[in-house]
Structures are given as structure tokens and as C-alpha cells.
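Researcher: Last one for today. Full complex below.
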Amino acid sequence: MKEKIQFVLNGKPVEVETEKEQFLLWVLRTHFNLTGTKYGCGLGYCGSCTVLMDDDPVRSCNIMMEDVAGTRIVTIEGMEEGGELHPLQQAFVEHDALQCGFCTPGMIMNAAGFLKKNTEPTRADIIDAMEDNLCRCGAHNRIIDAIESASKNMKGGPKS
Amino acid sequence: MKAKQIDQYYFHDVNSPVFSMDRRNFLKNLGGGIIIVFSLSELGFTGRYNPQEQLPEFNAFLRVKEDGRVDCYTGKIEMGQGINTSLAQTLAEELEVDIHDVDMIMGETDLVPYDAGTWGSMTTRFQDPLIRAAAAEAREVLRELAAEKLSLPLDRMVASNGRIMDRSDNTRSVSYAELTKGQKIVRAVTTKPEVKKARDLKVIGKSFNRLDSVKKVTGKALYAADIRLPGLMYARIVRPPAHGSKLVSSDTSGAEAVTGTRLLRDGDFIVVLHADPEMAEKAVMAIRSEWEVPESKANQDTIFEYIKRNATDIRVRYSGGDLEAGRKASDIVFEHEYHDGYKAHASIETHTATAIYKDGEITMWASSQTPFGTRQEVADRLGIAREKVHIKQIYLGGGFGGKIYNQQAVEAARIARMAEGTPVQLAWTRREEFMYDMFRPAAVMKINSGVTKDGIIRFWDFDIYCAGDRGTELFYGVADHRTRLLDARGLHPFGTGAWRAPGNNTTTFARESQIDIMAHSIGMDPLEFRIKNMNNERALNSLKVAAEKFGWSKTKPPKGTGRGIAVGFDAGTYVTIILEAKVDLQTGRVKVTRAVVGQDMGQVINPQGTRIQAEGCVNMGLGYALTEDIEFDWKTVNSYNFGDYKIPLFSDIPDSIETVWVDAMDQPPQGGGEPAIICMGAAVTNAIFEACGARVFRIPATPERILEAMK
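Model: Here's the assembly. Have a good evening.
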């Protein structure tokens, strides 16, 4: 049975009529046309669908809409502020921390959630936090560099 | 430099023998500016193309637009390898424009010249020189126009930063935009225009960040599944449990009970469509089907014996001297067999296509490395002319050879026609991806070789089952040698195909393992042994630059730490990887801590892009060396998802990857996307050997296999 579910999406209150068991990933991609959040495996292994839910990185392919009700969701499309790239996005660009780019939104969202909890991470902390986000092109070293440099830039004024 | 000026000609002569109707129409429909077209054959281009395809002679163009920006048209696609940046660099170099003023039009079959596909590290080798020449040609046209406009002699016209200026007075200049305004000039290059000398290069050889990264970090880059059309329906196909299964019966009533489902059927091809992808999934799961599954003949452990028994098609690829004489002259003889299991491409984006069929024409956004191949396959399957199939430009979420094969596009095309007028999207699930991926084939390699006590390889007898001959021409000087290829049609239980440097990962693993075994057996340093036996200067160059960067010494590291060397040849490039790994002697777990890639690869267009490709090769290659193996029971694939098929994680990758190359800016550019990955198997297993004395003959070198080999 469909229900009206309200939540905050990229800073704006929204309402969507959906089954409670529907997964957030598909609601984002089909209902809201936010296609930056990617399907990679559907079982939470790859992290391409990572979004922030109340500041925590979650796998949207495994989050049911009933659990989304009343939360704040941020997707890759909600990371820019006033037309400016988020420091993480900027760092990924500067470090060329991507190739095909398909895992990139999930990488950035996972890192964004992680940096909210750990503002001064070591490289080992970053590797540990990113462990379950898969990249097939092999951009890992540069992704670590980008997150490390973003964490430094964000100190004294992290966004969002 | 002679260029054939054809100017307005093609816009008026409808009976032109050179261009077919649709190309001519394309040129007509194109806006103004300066358009450069190319004659491949006259340039001596030797790259593969399908002669059945129309207009192979029309194989590169660019357009300097009336606003001064430049469109670069190429049949190549961008899947992460970074050619949208390196090709733009090449164009910018010769045309003297800012790289950010170049727009890449890629893989859109109605717009770009025919291309056989993006594979084989061929873009930089073969497409790059064409675009460079086209840009040089365009620059000449602009100089001529400027000379006329400024009423100055042509030899005083110099191109710089989007303008043509007077060599002796740079205040007298005119921009490309002013020159192209209101013009429509088409030129076909019939002789190779003069391009810049290596010493004059300013853009080629300089590092540039990817041009598509802002789109990709903001989620704006569109992949095949991101296309949204009004009324789009999501398709799911009823799949068998195993390849080669026969459908016995199917009850679709469960699917029909899911509100909003549209059921399509063409024999065994049963499809559900739904406006909501999860409902499509629910509906397809509700279909009850009975299948007859073929009997099992082999699994991931028994496949190697199966291959040896059944690979009955044998041919000699290379041979020289007398194997028996070489054997007799050897002090030590070695006979080893190497095994490599099936590997998935495992791109994070699964095979996907979005399509709409209407009025006998189909428009598609397909994740394909071969847009023109897709066009042909779709046309053939639907029985329509290929001009009625329109493949659009799209980003690919990885390819690695896996998206040369377009099954999903053909399926989507069939569905689109069955649902005529309704746009449909078919995005394979990860399970489907692991089933229908064209795996890198399992392979067996037998090497018999012999060496003298002072370290000379005396004979080399190499039997390659199912891995082909790419990169197998020996660069060690062995007079008595033979390389045979053994294979058979239909040998594998499922589809196999090209996997980043096809075959070469597998054969390089075997060859470079055997070389290492021989070096150690006579107590010779493996670097010294290779140098002593190599007969190819470029291979030696790659080895030397890598060894120097690595700081190789004959002193062995403490137990538990090992260094591995492997050398190979792929796509015109000689490559060496030297890496350091730690092996946990209790658990058999391996961690590669450092890798150095050394390449002799000709001209390097984008040094940063080159490094990134090498890093990708090292990181991706760790997977086949250490963890990746498709599990199967004959035609049933038992690796379903990333939980079963382990690709490298952040904690697996080396702390540092350094990439060096031989300075050869005056040489033609060679491949950079594939070569380095071929060295990973042997570099890793050779390092494992030095660390703990375990010689692993089967990759992936899992902890179990390492512990077993340590006994």
C-alpha cells in the first residue's frame, strides 16, 4: 500500500507517495530524477549508491522508504553550495581522483559522512572508512589523497 | 603540404562519388565554420576497420565553429581512460587553441566518423595522429583566411591562442571566431600535413587534469541508465539459472498480478516492463519457470584438465632452431604448468541500454565500447537499415573490454520494438552482469625451458591453451624456441572475450614466472638474469628505468618481504613492473606495499593521464593476481556479486605507485591503458616467492594456495 512519506532532500522538504518497502535508491533515481546516485550491485557491497542520511553515509539500495521518513537526505546533487563545489568535490577534481566516474558520487558521499565524524583523519583512517566502496578503475590512491587534502581544507570552515 | 581544397563542392554536387548521401547530408546540416575531413587510406592508417562499413575514408574530423570553439568528432568513447582529455590536448596543440575550447563529440553514430571500437589501446596510437593532422590542416586554412583578411603574405601568419597574428607585428591579428564567421569551408586532407616537431610541443607532453571531472563529481555526467524519457519503462528479462538452459514451462500469472506490469513475450524471451524498476523486479521474480540445465562437465578446479583434453586445435606461432639441441645444451631443464581461472570485467556500471523505437527507427543510449558495432548488431537483429539505428553519446562506467559485447543493447532493441513507441531501459542487475559478462578465459600454459649454469636460456618451449598470442613474441634471445597455440571452438562453458590486454595477462604471468624460476635455480639475481638474456632494446629500457626508480639491489629483504619483477609487451609498449610485497607467513595473506611501473611507450601525450592509467593497471591487476576467480559449475556461474567475486579494496592497494618512462617524445605514441596490467600476475607471484619461498602456479594466488606452496 502506498503511503505519503516526507523527508528533507538536499535541504528542501519533499513528499513522495510510495510503498514503505521501496528502496531509497530507486525513489531518488526515478521519482526525483537524481541520477547521480548510482546502482552498482543492489546488495550494499559496492557503495555507488551512498547518500547521507542525517549526516551518516548509508547505502540507498538497502534503505527502505519507511526509514527515510523524517530524515535529512543529501545526495551528490546537494553537495554544491551557491554554485561552488564542495571541498571534497574540488579535491577530487584537483587530484584527478576518478576515471570512469561511476563510483565517484558514492565515494564523495561516503567521505563526506566520514569527515563529519573525523575531521583530522590519518591515511589509515581514510582507508578504513572507504574500505567498502569499490572502484574498478583503480583510482584508490588518488581518492585517498583527495580526501586527505579536503579534510585539511575543510578545517576551520567545513561546509554543510 | 598539399591539401585538396574542396570548399563548397560537396554541398552542391549530390552525385559525389566520395561521400554517401547521409554523410553529405550531415555536412549540409552542420553549421558554419571550417570542417576538416580525412582520408584514412591515403594516410596509410593501418588500424582495423570493417571494410563493409561505409566511408572508412571519412575517418576524422573537426570543426572550428563560428564562435571560435572547436568540435572534435571521434568514434571513440570515454570509459574512464581519459582520451577525451588527451585527444583534446592533441587538437589544441596543433590548432593553437585552449584545451577548454574543445568540445569532444564521441561515439554518436549520426555525427562521428566510423570507428571499429574503443579497445586495444588504439586511440592514442591511431586516432591521435589523425586528429593531430586534422588540427594542423585547420590551422593552415585559418592562416590562409587571415592572410587574405589582413592583406598580408601567408608566411607572416602565425597561429597562437585562438588567433592568427602577423609574425612581425603581433598587434595585427584576427581571432578564429572572426575568421570562421559566415564561412563554410570543408577540406579533405589527402596528404599528411606537417605537424609540429617534438621540440616545439607545448600542450602535448604537459599534464592536464581530466576535462570531465566536474561533471563526474557533481553527478551531472550521464551514463546509459541516467537517460530519462517521458513514459520510460524499466525492463527485466526472465533469465535461466545457467547458460544453455532450455525453457520447459513458464507461468507468468504472478507477474501479471503486479499492477502496472506489461508483459512481452517472444518465445523464450520473456520480458516485464514497469514504470517503477522495483516493481519490474518484483514482477519478474513472480514468474515461475522450469528449465532444463545442461549436465556439468567441469568447474573452476577441474577446468584446466578439461581444457588440456579438449584444446585440439594446435598451431605453431613462433619457432626457431632445434628444441632438442637446446635441451641437450642446457644444464638445468624446467617443466612447469601455469593456470589462470576465468575473470570478470566487473565494471561498476553494469551493461545498460535505454532505447526508443518509433516509425521504424531506433534511438539508443548504450554502454558500449563499440557504438558502430552496436548499430550494426541492432540493425541486423531488427532487420532494419543501420541508418535507422541512432546510437547517442554517453559516458561509460568502465569497460575494460567487457563492453565490446553488446548483448544488452540488442536485448533492449528487441524490447523497444516489442513496446513500440514506449521508451524502455534495460540495466542488467549485478547478477546478470556476472552471468553474461564475456569472461577472460581460463587458460593453461606449459613451459619447458633450459638454462646453462652461467645463466643463458638455451631453449624455450611454450604451449598456450586458450590465451592467444598477444605479446608472446619472445624478447629474450633464445635460439631454440617454439610457441604453440592450443584452443578449440566452443571450449568454454560460457562466453569469453577480451579483458584489458587480452591473453597477455595470462601469458605474461607464465613467462615471467618461468624466467624467475630459472634465475633463482642458478642463484642469479632475477634482474641480472633478465638483462643478460634480453635481446630487445626497448624491453631493456623499460626494465632499466623501473629498476633505477625502484632502487633494485641484489641484497634480499628480510623473510616475509619480497620483490617481484615482470616484463612484458603490449599495444606497442614495453613495460616492466617491480613491486614489493609482504606475506604473512601464518595466514598467507599478501599486501603489496609499493609498485614501480617503467614503460618504453613512445611519445607521452598527457603525463598525468599516463600515470593514472598505470596506477589503474596496478590496482586492477592486483585483483586477478590475488583474489579474483569466477566460481562455476559448468554453465552455472556461482559468483553472483561482489561478495563472491573480490575485486581490490582500499586496504589492498599499494601505499605508493610510481610511474616512469623512457623519454621518447620524438617517437610515435604507443598504448598506455592496457600494457602495465599484464605484469601484475608474475610481479606479485615472484614477490611472494622471494618473501616466503612459495611458488604459486595458479592465479589468483590465494592465501590457501600460498600456504600450500610453502609446505
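The domain at 2-78 of chain A is CATH 3.10.20.30 (Ubiquitin-like (UB roll)). The longest strand of chain A covers residues 2-9.
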